[in-house]
Amino acid sequence: MRLLIVSDLHVWGDDDPLYESLLRLLKNEATPGDTVVLAGDLFDLFVGNKRIFISRYRRFFEGLREAGQRGVHVHYIEGNHDFLIRKTFQKIPGLWVHSSDVQIETGGRRFFVSHGDLVDRKDYGYRALRGFFRSPVMRAFIWMMPGAWIDWIGQTSSKRSRAKNPALPMQLPQERMDGLRRVYRNYASAKFSEGFDFVVMGHCHDLDEMRLKVGEREGQYINVGYPRTHGSFLFWSPEQARIERRPLP
Question: Please, what are the domains in the chain?
């Protein structure tokens, strides 16, 4: 079994070139028996089971169904831009939706893959906001709100963000990014001590990667980065000792 991992595409519409890359990855890169992990924030906005998003990304759903029919296994981890989506994808064969992470074991290797938005335990503001958006009250509100309204709010917010900084949707000061690197690496080290061989995360858009040794155990931590800038996804096969970066198709 080979493993393909992608996250943080932040696709903003069906005319986004990265949307085509996502479709080609499912169709051309994933072969029968492979596992694809979609590790969150594939879209700038995809909330709930709203027809407007399902219609806009119709080819994505078709690609997932075709991949499942070929024997490809897909794990979709919710991010902070695509959440409350379990019901949306529940009828697609060979696909599982996870709220924060997935653990995969193959070929005697253990993989821990997470979107990464819960890694920084001291980011109390974000954690509170995340909890609010996934609360029963917010679920009910989103269920009642017309999809066009949710889409308008999301599109307006994204356009303003891209206008301010077209390179990255999240540009942190270097001091903050250095601090996050330590937090993510420490988190990965803790996972290695639990018996994992590989730890993969996203969310912070940091093209970070290193081998970490904890006691007698050694593992590889790698962050997906930000494909819109870095242009890559992650790939592993049983013949490889490391996860490698490959160009997006």
Answer: 3-247 (3.60.21.10)
